[in-house]
Design a protein that fits this description.
heterotrimer, A mainly alpha (307), B alpha/beta (925), C alpha+beta (217), A: 307 residues, mainly alpha, Formate dehydrogenase/DMSO reductase fold, two-stranded antiparallel sheet, globular, C: 217 residues, Alpha-Beta Plaits, two-stranded antiparallel ribbon
Chain lengths: 307, 925, 217
């Protein structure tokens, strides 16, 4: 007897149980990768400006990442010639709001090239943009792993961590004195926040807030993500502190791992653990004089079955 | 802002017309519909809303009708006559069809026919040289225009090459049902029925629009239906309860119910007056098993409690004793072949007492063991049936007071054909008889007749016979008139007395023999010969029969095959000529509607409906009526053909008591002229000759009906009006006929039908029917243990009878219903085989045939049974050949040992299952 | 006020998909795009098993998540409750598709035909370029409803004013009507039967009501 039979018979509920959404693919994930990392970078570059750091490279890199994200999602829409219609839905849609914020972010970012002090304002639209991205996912009520309230802190913590990560990678080229010391501390904090939210998020999804198949994706993803995207960067940060000869390289490596972890997280959530709601009934009907019966929620944990 | 939905035609500003028509793709039709036409292109099928008060299901059509537009416009259609260029015929041979003109095609066909006419219509063995195979249950007739008139003009034709009819139908029910109560198809009187036991009857898939509608109404009224079958079909899904019975044990289940009714329930709960006065229950049976009869009149005797003596059954004022044993001073008994015995002081036992004693051992404990279902549930079902029977109650139907017995038993295919089918039919009918629920409102009723005549009115289809029963057109078994040689290849008239000899009988007989006997000659009958000319329309026996490889082999050896073809398919792969007729939405035809028709078409109207073109003729397709007329002209049969039309063999007689629209005999008439005259005659028929609207009127109005009284749905009042009784429970006539047939066969030296003769018994009893199929494993040289599973099948409403596997829309929507994409199997069975959902298995039957398909796991099936839905396995039909879904038809045996006395067998086989290897990914292993 | 809704009687539905095909015809949707379809659910373990047929489609929610996320205002909600898509505004971003917990929305980017690359005459007649690359879903056959209202007909009663799926239903499992009108066909059914709505816990306020048992049971 094969192992698969030990618990469930392995029945598919094709077209009933939640299935992987296909409306948003890597192109949409690209927006969350570019947008999250780019705005994270812009936020910390902006904060650095208060400490006298100024780098057009970092600003341009941040804008480029956000821009690439937007271009990526532009490739996904069905009617690209009407793309500007995206601005019509500001009353309700976080996607419109994201686009509107982009309308502030890019001019402001370009303006900092000429008026460096404006960089101190960059964190505002960048944070707003990052927040909009988090709310975009959260408003997608059809995807249980997205609509979780925890998607907000998770997306934001990861965006910040990724931003610091890129900053650490680019610092040797962009900043005369390399990365400021506080940045490593900020990264530790961001990683800690990200891993804490992740653990909580994962527990809740696996605990019944997500379809079984989505939860399984998250479970499979959890260990590599925790180790490669979070623990290893922390170890590298410790190494950077202990071994000055590898300081810069270790910081950059930590940054790279954090970014890679964040991007993998987004690819996973947007394109792999993105099972939809599926279908469910609260009761089986009475047929004629027969009795009614229990409900059914295929593809969800037994505990989540409707009574 | 433009928020308008996509509506196509109207939004796009096209010219919109709505054309009324009918859908008769399946035997559960006809249903009335409307075709929406935009700028001359058919775009939508809709119900016919103007038929809400006329059609029993409010003018609706089912999912299949919606496929007709794709059927009409399919790029895969055959749009010109085609000629085969490759003389070799085989599955692996490319026929090399090339387009030819109609003139050339009809010339080739007519040459063949004229040669046959010149040389003789039957061959030296006595078999017709022309054979025709038409699809399910008479539906092709609704599309073949006036071809029926041509066939009638031709002379002898072998209609016995079936494509499933006769073997995959409700076969025992057709024959025994029509014998016992003029019910060729038998249904509950839904929705009046309150309690329905359904043994495998797949109503929600097979009973069409009206069946679905009526049973939904019944559920809304609080009816309870118990579905008894090995897998949970769509009908089981719609039932209050499901009882997963072991395959082919339904007869045991039904006999157990009889036991509970007569041995565990108070006698006065039964309908004793019905048993006493409307059945043969009080007839006295002598010790030799024949009815004790009055020596003077030969009439059967019953015991009159008023006078305390035996009197002829029809004695006025007699009070028949239902139960008991009585000594009769003088009586005679009549056996087979005019045997006659005289008796004195003989003990006569009432038929009912014999029945009660007969079912004594069929206890719930016994039944539970046979059927593998809990004893308590069998008992509960019997008790609920009895409790719901409302014995003693009456209801008024159209001013007539009738008994009201809202309990019924339905039987499905496989339950109802092959060995055990007769026993199921008998037990089911007895369940109705015990509570007086046969042919009364709410009860078990017949819909229509096909063996007796007149087909249009079953209440007028009988006179009484000497014994006080409805007479029956048995094929003769007496020495003088028995048909010692088959008149067609399947020997129906010789072997099956019950099948009668109506136009339907050839295709009801043992139709598998038409194929079998060509390669397996039987002793003492002329060797079957291949017909010189085979005509095929709206059917695909190479897919839809049993042992389809064998059918393909036979068809491939037919000397000359003409197929009317919508697309290429597995049967016309072997054709010599393909002819493109106009499809459902292109042709013109007037048909009868209304009255009572199978499956659950119970109308309160009767009249006619027109099928008219809503789609412009595609390619060079021609209307069937024009094709038929040209055939008649080219074969010199025009006058006979026109005469047949005038007689109404195409559906409407053109002459009535005070009207005459007969066509001149010597002229070839156009399709429009023929149907215009038919429309005029139909108008006259419906108005007593007062009106005579022609084709144009009917094109505008679509259908026209007059009232048909609901009282006509029930036979019992008509039976009683003639002073007759149902011959139940005791089967003296059948027993006599069986004895006589045995005598005839013995005289002819025929022994291969001996086992079938055991079905003729006065009281039907349980035999180990599943074992018949297990024995067949051994007969094939296998071991039963190596074939541990049963394979069964079930109908798909989306496909049944529709010849529509090539229509992508049907594939698309049927995929929502479990079982359309693989072999349904219980997870426990899958564990044993070591396969998971979606993996492929190889299923092998005792005849050495295998199919391969994907596993579809389901809790709704017994672990010892697998299910192969519908009839897939196409290899030539466009679209369908890419389905990759197996069919059990390749696995099921055609075998004498599996053929019952009515000439039928069942969709059932023992099978072996194993996981497919990596190199077995095709449909065949 | 009017609020259009559908009542689906699970006790009546037989899963035949006639509604699915009628909808495919009425809306001329391409292969696989089914605004209405019927699910085949199997509940329980042998031998205590049930099969339930569940018609699904756009629920025309009171609080439609699709409307809330739409960045273009292409998706709107009418005063009578119908959730509509303006195909001329929609950019086809797919956001509404992931926002809908009923999997009711589709997007098709290229013309697709029943017989693969072979367009049939009826497909040619009914091809609507506006629907390429944008979101589409059940409209409650708004054109029929509006036609009926404009001509004094009662939607859900007069067939000309009733969604095609409801008209076609063989078992009369589907009923369309105004759930705000206490005397309407649907309100009467909702009084007589117990009903539930799918995924109601998500706060969407769906407007397909599933009947599963009579009230007096």
């Amino acid at each position: 007897m094969s192992e698969e039979f030990e618990d469930a018979p392995g029945m598919r509920h094709l077209g009933l149980a939640p299935w992987l959404q296909t409306a948003w693919d890597m192109r949409a994930a690209g927006n969350f990768m570019g947008g999250g990392t780019g705005t994270g970078l812009l936020i910390f570059t902006s904060l650095g400006a208060f400490g006298g750091i100024h780098s057009p490279i970092l600003i341009l890199a941040g804008l480029a990442l956000v821009g690439l994200g937007l271009f990526s999602v532009f490739l996904e829409i069905g009617r690209p010639l009407r793309a500007l219609n995206v601005l019509l839905g500001g009353k309700r849609s976080w996607m419109t709001r994201e686009a509107m914020v982009a309308g502030v972010l890019f001019p402001l970012g370009l303006a900092t090239l000429f008026y460096p002090d404006l960089a101190k304002l960059m964190w505002i639209p960048a944070s707003a943009y990052l927040y909009c991205q988090a709310r975009i996912l959260e408003a997608a009520k059809g995807i249980p792993t997205w609509r979780s309230p925890l998607i907000l802190p998770l997306t934001m913590a990861s965006g910040l961590a990724e931003g610091i990560g890129v900053l650490l990678m680019l610092a040797p080229f962009a900043l005369e004195n390399g990365a400021p010391d506080w940045l490593a501390g900020a990264l530790v904090a961001a990683i800690a926040a990200r891993i804490f939210v992740w653990m909580t998020y994962r527990r809740r999804m696996v605990g019944g807030e997500a379809p079984v198949e989505a939860a399984a994706v998250l479970i499979r993803f959890s260990m590599p993500f925790t180790l490669s995207g979070n623990v290893i960067p922390l170890a590298l940060l410790v190494g950077a502190g202990l071994l000055p000869e590898i300081h810069s390289a270790a910081l950059a490596a930590a940054g790279l791992a954090v970014v890679a972890g964040g991007w993998a997280l987004k690819i996973t959530i947007v394109t792999k653990a993105a099972q939809n709601q599926g279908f469910a009934i609260n009761h089986s009907p009475a047929r004629g004089a027969g009795e009614s019966g229990p409900g059914f929620k295929p593809g969800w944990r037994e505990g989540a079955k409707k009574e | 802002m433009n928020a308008a939905p996509a509506t196509g035609g109207e939004a796009l500003g096209g010219e919109v017309k709505r054309v009324q028509s009918y859908c008769y793709q399946c035997v559960a039709g006809p249903d009335l519909m409307t075709v929406k036409v935009v700028d001359g292109i058919a775009t939508e099928i809709e119900p016919n809303f103007s038929a809400v008060g006329t059609h029993p299901a409010e003018g609706k059509v089912c999912v299949k009708a919606f496929g007709l537009i794709q059927k009409a416009y399919s790029p895969h259609r055959i749009l010109t006559p085609m000629k085969r260029t490759n003389p070799k015929k085989g599955k692996d041979q490319d026929p090399g069809f090339v387009p030819i003109s109609w003139d050339e095609a009809m010339g080739i066909v007519a040459d063949k026919l004229n040669t046959i006419r010149a040389e003789g219509l039957v061959d030296e063995a006595g078999y017709p040289k022309v054979a025709a195979s038409f699809g399910g249950a008479g539906t092709p007739t609704q599309y073949m225009g006036s071809l029926t008139a041509f066939l009638s003009a031709w002379g002898p034709i072998d209609f016995g090459f079936g494509s499933g009819q006769g073997v995959k139908c409700y076969h025992s029910e057709h024959l025994y049902g029509e014998f016992w109560h003029r019910g060729y198809v038998i249904t509950p009187d839904t929705p009046r029925a309150k309690y329905i036991i359904s043994c495998g009857a797949n109503t929600e898939a097979s009973a069409g629009v009206c069946g679905v509608y009526r049973h939904a109404e019944a559920r809304a009224n609080g009816a309870k239906r118990v579905q008894v079958e090995p897998h949970l079909s769509v009908t089981g899904a719609c039932s209050a309860e499901w009882l997963p019975i072991r395959p082919k044990t339904d007869a045991a289940f039904l006999m157990t119910l009889l036991n509970v009714l007569v041995h565990e329930s108070p006698r006065d709960k039964l309908d004793l007056p019905f048993l006493r006065d409307t059945t043969s229950s009080p007839y006295l049976v002598g010790p030799d098993g024949w009815y004790l009869r009055d020596p003077a009149t030969s009439k059967p005797l019953l015991w009159d409690e008023a006078t305390g003596k035996a009197v002829p059954f029809d004695t006025q004022g007699a009070v028949p004793a239902l139960e008991g044993r009585f000594t009769v001073a003088k009586a005679i008994t009549l056996g087979a072949d005019d045997e006659r015995w005289e008796h004195s002081d003989v003990v006569g036992t009432t038929a009912f007492t014999l029945f009660v004693e007969h079912v004594k051992d069929y206890t719930p404990a016994w039944g539970a063991g046979i059927c593998d279902v809990p004893e308590s549930r069998i008992r509960k079902i019997a008790q609920e049936y009895l409790a719901n029977a409302c014995v003693g109650q009456t209801i008024e139907i159209d001013g007539q007071t009738m008994p009201y017995r809202p309990v019924a038993v339905g039987l499905g295919k496989t339950v109802n054909n092959g060995w055990g089918g007769a026993e199921c039919c008998w037990a089911r009918t007895m369940l109705a008889v015990l509570v007086g629920a046969l042919e009364v409102p709410g009860g078990t009723v017949g819909t229509t007749i096909r063996i007796n005549r007149p087909a249009a009115n079953r209440l007028e289809s009988f006179e009484g016979c000497l014994d006080g029963f409805m007479d029956y057109p048995f094929n003769p078994t007496d020495k003088a008139t028995w048909q010692a040689n088959p008149i067609i290849r399947n020997s129906y008239k010789m072997l099956v007395p019950l099948v009668g000899n109506s136009s339907w009988s050839p295709a009801l007989g043992p139709t598998q023999f038409s194929y079998m006997f060509l390669d397996e000659p039987q002793d003492q009958i002329p060797r079957a010969t291949f017909p010189e000319f085979l005509l095929v329309y709206r059917t695909n026996p190479v897919i839809s029969f049993w042992d389809t490889d064998r059918v393909a082999s036979v068809v491939s050896r037919m000397p000359f095959v003409v197929c009317f073809a919508v697309t290429r398919d597995e049967t016309n792969h072997f054709a010599d000529i393909l002819l493109p007729d106009r499809t459902d939405l292109e042709g013109l035809q007037l048909i009868r509607i209304g009255g009572t028709k199978f499956q659950e078409q119970y109308w309160t109207q009767q009249g006619f409906a027109l099928r008219q073109p809503s789609v412009a003729p595609q390619g060079e397709s021609r209307d069937f009526t024009d094709i038929s007329t040209e055939l008649a002209v080219r074969t010199g049969l025009l006058e006979k053909y026109n005469a047949a039309i005038n007689r109404g063999s195409h559906g409407v007689p053109l002459k009535g008591p005070n009207w005459d629209f007969s066509l001149p005999l010597d002229k070839a008439h156009t399709c429009e002229d023929i149907w215009d005259a038919s429309c005029r005659s139909a108008s006259a028929e419906l108005t007593g000759g007062a009106e005579s609207q022609g084709l144009d009127w009917w094109k505008d109005h679509g259908f026209r009906t007059i009232a048909f009284s609901e009282a006509n749905w029930f036979l019992t009042p008509a039976l009683k009006a003639k002073g007759l009784r149902y011959e139940l429970p005791y089967q003296e006539r059948l027993t006599r006929i069986g004895h006589q047939l045995a005598n005839r066969l013995k005289e002819a030296g025929i022994t291969w039908w001996d086992h079938q003769l055991t079905e003729y018994r006065p009281l039907m009893d349980w035999h180990d029917f599943p074992k018949y199929w297990e024995d067949h494993v051994v007969e094939c040289g296998g071991k039963v243990a190596d074939f541990p599973f049963w394979v069964v099948t079930t109908r798909s409403m989306q496909y049944a009878w529709g010849s529509n596997m090539h229509i992508p829309l049907m594939r698309e929507v049927s995929s929502h219903i479990k079982g359309h994409d693989g072999v349904v199997m219980n997870p426990e069975a899958a564990r044993k085989i070591g396969v998971k959902e979606g993996e492929r298995i190889v299923v092998t039957s005792p005849i050495g045939k295998s199919v391969c398909g994907r596993v579809v796991l389901s809790q709704g099936i017994r672990p010892d049974t697998i299910l192969m839905m519908s009839q897939f396995d196409h290899w030539a039909t466009p679209v369908a050949k890419d389905f990759d879904v197996p069919s059990m038809n390749r696995l099921t045996a055609m075998a004498m040992s599996l053929t019952d006395a009515t000439g039928s067998s069942a969709d059932l086989s023992r099978v072996a299952i194993r996981k497919a290897g990596p190199d077995e990914q095709g449909r065949r292993s | 006020m009017t609020k259009w809704g559908i009542v689906a009687d699970l006790g009546r539905c037989v899963g035949c998909q006639t509604c699915t095909t009628a909808c495919r015809h009425a809306n001329a949707t391409p292969p696989g795009v089914q605004y209405r379809k019927v699910l085949d659910m199997e509940v329980g373990t042998f031998p205590d098993v049930r099969r339930v047929f569940v018609p699904v489609g756009c629920m025309h929610c009171d609080e439609p998540p699709c409307r809330d996320v739409c960045p273009t205002t292409a998706t709107t909600k009418r005063a009578d409750g119908m959730v509509m898509i303006d195909y001329d505004i929609c950019i086809g971003c797919g956001y509404c598709i992931v926002a809908c917990p009923y999997q009711a929305r589709y997007k098709v980017s290229k013309p697709t035909f029943a017989f693969k690359d072979q367009e049939t005459q009826n497909e040619r007649t009914r091809f609507d370029e506006r629907l390429l690359g944008v979101a589409q879903k059940c409209t409650f056959c708004v054109d029929r409803v509006d036609y009926g209202l404009a001509n004094g007909l009662t939607p859900g009663v007069a067939p000309e004013a009733t969604p095609a799926c409801v008209n076609a239903c063989l078992s009369k499992a589907l009923t369309f009507g105004d759930t705000e009108d206490p005397d309407s066909n649907v309100s009467k059914l909702l009084k007589r039967y117990k009903s539930f709505r799918m995924h109601e816990e998500l706060g969407t306020g769906p407007n397909i009501h599933y009947l599963w048992e009579t009230e007096d049971q």
